Amino acid sequence: QVQVVESGGGLVQAGGSLRLSCAASGTIFSINSMGWYRQAPGQQLRDLVAEIFSDDSTNYPDSSKGRFTISRDGAKNMVYLQMNSLKPEDTAVYLCQADVQTTTAPRFFRYWGQGTQVTVSS
What is the pLDDT of residue 63? Predict the structure, then answer.
């Protein structure tokens, strides 16, 4: 089994910064990618914030470029999201995901954390 746990959310003023952390643990054989999605209040969609792959390539939507930076620590199976110049529209539940191949399953599965709340005041 694989567990994904986020931390680092909180309340900040517009223009402030937060650093989110996510740890994947369990019977992990390999990780293809880890990333961050967010779900805004009242919304059903989970929008991609940033993703990083095992070769250290990254994927950012335009809304994240220049303000958010994703990084990883492969030895610890952790991923981080540094968020700067936060805006009220960044307010959302931020969820960590990990595409993981376990020691007992041949395919990759996407595992999700429960999310951490980020609130940006105007």
Answer: 85
Query: What is the structure's pLDDT at 14?
Result: 98
Which residues are within 8 A (CB) of 43 and not within 5 positions of it... i.e. 6 or more apart? Answer: none
Confidence (pLDDT) at 64: 86
List CB contacts of 78: < 8 A, sequence separation 6 or more: 21, 22, 23, 24, 72
Query: Do 113 and 6 meet the contact criterion of CB atoms below 8 Å apart?
Result: yes
How far lies 36's CA from each of 95, 98, 104, 106, 122, in Å? 6, 9, 25, 24, 23
Q: Which residues of the chain have pLDDT under 50?
A: none
Q: How far apart are CA 76 and CA 88, in angstroms?
A: 32
- Predicted local distance difference test score (pLDDT) of residue 34: 98
